[in-house]
Amino acid sequence: MSASVDHLEPSDETTSEDGAGGALLVLFLVTFIDMIGFGIVIPFLTYLVEDLAVGQGIAAVGLWVGLIMTAYPTAQFLSAPLWGGLSDRIGRRPILIVGLVGNTVCFTLFGLAPTLLVAASARFMAGFFNGNIPVARAYIGDMSSPEKMAARMGLIGAAFGLGFTIGPFLGGELSAPAERWSIFEGTVFDAHPYLLPCVLASALSIVALLIAMTRLPESLPPERRTRTETLGWASTLRSSVSGMTSMMRTPAIGRLILVGMLFSFGFTIMHAVFILFTEMSPADGGLGFSEAQNGRVFAIIGLTGIVVQGGLIRPLSKRVSSRTLVPVAILLTGLGLGAIPYATSSAPWLWLLPTCILMATGSGVFQPSSSSLLASYSSERGERLGGVMGASESASAFARILGPVTGGVVWTATWQREGLLDYHTVFRLCALIMLLGALLSLTLPPEPSRDGNEDD
């Protein structure tokens, strides 16, 4: 351990503007590989749930899809403020490593799950140990001046987008390999048709773990770390929840966190029902998509995220304030979400392609813009960035708990009905929630960090 610390001693230099490039590149690679692993399960998760449900004689597939999707954010809700606060005390790097270790174990466990309960447990464990999202954002905040914040948040957002491009594509193409390639017939991959992409996800997490352990410096120097006594787990949890509640009462920060909650709520309702719609028989109004086709849809969404967060957000943030971008981004996302179920099986891509690009563009602009705005509000009020980001992620995770369950319940209640309350209903609900979020974001105060010097 001491050798590792000595190796990372020069990491204080990375907190300067001159030394940030190398650290950002490594963080980009770690986040990219990590998100491949996360995105790889998306195309087949619904199919895995259906297979296990049939084997257990369970009919409420939509509800179980929502519950298993909810397991991950439920764990994040419990753990995100803990990891954010802990990163303020011991640094960002150890927390990022913990998340990668958790991913490595839990992905394979998910692919081997014999029951729905085991599958839900594996997703819960993965969510609990994955503290990468708020801590990665805090890492960026540690080393970034206000005028560079949005562009750098967009760089990490591009890693998310790239991971979500490659991950779902691989997940779809590698699902049920025994049905495509004879070499897998009679193997464990035949008995567990979704294990191969999960093993690949674990292998990629190991690669990311090695990169983080050997190449990722610490962004938070010792003199900037919070000096507090070590608390027990229950005390730490109570303290973290109390901190989140306190952040929610802070006028600007709390309102922006609430906007983020509404955005996450509406977006994750879609996560639970999107594949339920696309795989549904065309006779019932669906598209009849396979795992591979769904993987390609999410690859398109991820590719759009790369373009937006890797290229578009930088010039946008120089010309338009994050405060202005946030409501526009929410409205674009809402339009895309509401339009999804109007795709037809006769020409699905003609409608689905522009719809998903619109939705992904809005989401790609919202994430770095809201993170940059939150960091600006935090700096103006002297709040600790790790704690604020942890509180924000915990609140968004709470919304992601409600989202899939809400989507599963609404889908189960409406998808076989006709008239106004049919399978379109849940997507209309997504659009309505986004509209509420956009209206609330219009009440946010001006962005404090913009001083007119960003074009210099």
| CATH H level, superfamily name | MFS general substrate transporter like domains
Cα distance, first to last residue? 43 Å
Q: At the first level of CATH, what is the class?
A: Mainly Alpha
Summed up, the helix count is: 17
The overall pLDDT, averaged over residues, is 82
Total number of domains: 1
CATH fold label: Growth Hormone, Chain: A
Shape: globular
- Looking at the overall shape, the CATH architecture is Up-down Bundle
Helical coverage, percent range: over 70%
Q: How much strand content do the residues show?
A: under 5%
Order of helices and strands: HHHHHHHHHHHHHHHHH
How many β-strand stretches?
0
Biggest beta sheet summary: none
What is the structural class? mainly alpha
Outline the low-pLDDT stretches: 1-16, 450-456
Overview of this protein structure:
By secondary structure, the protein is mainly α. The protein has one domain (13-219, 242-441): Growth Hormone, Chain: A (Up-down Bundle). 75% of the residues lie in helices and 0% in strands. It has 17 helices and no strands. Helix 7 packs antiparallel against helix 16 (385-414) and helix 12 packs parallel to helix 14 (322-339). The longest helix is centred in the last third of the chain and has 34 residues, at 348-381. Residues 1-16 and 450-456 have low confidence and may be disordered.
